[in-house]
Amino acid sequence: PSAGCKFNPQYPETHAKPHEIQHSESKINIFDLVENSIENAEVLKF
């Protein structure tokens, strides 16, 4: 990755239309993502 961060998209969309964004985001089940993250979280004590 050019920015030194593997979480940045290689070719980001810079002129997306609102309906395109809504369509893409509608495919993501945020509730399941959050629930899975909470269930698999680890507490690390240093």
From TrEMBL:
Disordered: annotated segments: 1-21
Full protein name: Uncharacterized protein
Origin organism lineage: unclassified sequences, metagenomes, ecological metagenomes
